[in-house]
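User: Need the bound-state model for protoporphyrin IX containing FE:
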Amino acid sequence: MASSSLSVVLLLCLAAVASAQMSTTFYDASCPGAQATIKNGVVAAVSSDPRMAASLLRLHFHDCFVQGCDASVLLAGNERNAFGNVGSLRGFDVIDQIKSNVEQACKRTVSCADILAVAARDSVVAVGGPSWTVSLGRRDSDTASETLANHDLPAPSLSVTDLITRFAAKGLNHTDMVALSGAHTIGRAQCKNFRTRLYSEENIDPALATSRKATCPQLTGSGDSNLAPLDDTTPDMFDNAYFVNLKLNKGLLHSDQVLYTLAGGATEDIIDGFASNQDAFNNAFAAAMVKMGNISPLIFPQGQVRRICSRAN
Ligand code: HEM
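Assistant: Bound-state model below.
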């Protein structure tokens, strides 16, 4: 008993030390221009391609859900070949450019994992969403796992129960999950990811189904990569229209719509709240992004600061 409470105390101390090593001022002395350099890179990329905001936000999500926010998603091969990633994730070149700009100012100082976390926040801000303060000091992994990515990344075919389980496994509750799904207020999805919904689900607005079918034929293999906006109303603006749309059966992915129509009481109220109150969504989204960004970071002396984000040093 005494020894088990001693280990609890020890664990708490270790946790305190770990979190003390992440801080919002982490690079203030070692690389004072880091955050501005990242922001400039994001703003430039988003102004030439508005969808890039969505793509950078998703990169951070796919990073954090697989062995924590350690930039494993950026390593060539491995995770990048997982089902949900290959032929789908975008923005690697933008991150590479930002990293090279940051390296020019301060060598081997700012991790790729931190660049992803800041770039995700700046992307959201660039398209009209809320801001939040990012804790810094994550370090980069020297490994990535395709198998783990296939296991941990949620697929669009999942039920609400399975989605809840996946998010709970990362320490994220129902409100976090619904708020984070609101990231689908921006960005695009490929036909192969919503075809089944168009042709065999009933909880879909008929007009939306008809218009999406025009560029997403029923036959598997035809038009698989044709794109449609995840938020039909304001596809490139970060707002709460995604939630208003769910209430109208206008979610594009199965995993979007089930949060409202097949949730069995688990998440409908949260969606009602976000659909009727933009600030409530913004606040919950910012809070959930902070939580997601803190999933299992590598803290010094673990990990490394990669010189090039796509390969270990
Ligand atoms: C709830 C579970 C989730 C599932 C099943 C899911 C699934 C998907 C799928 C299938 C796509 C389209 C990919 C393609 O067709 O190439 C997509 C796009 C996207 N996802 Fe999610 N997602 C989920 C949660 C999230 C979260 C938590 C975030 C961020 C916080 C996010 C951000 C995005 C963004 C921004 C896009 C558009 C990317 C672009 O246009 O490049 N998603 N998601």
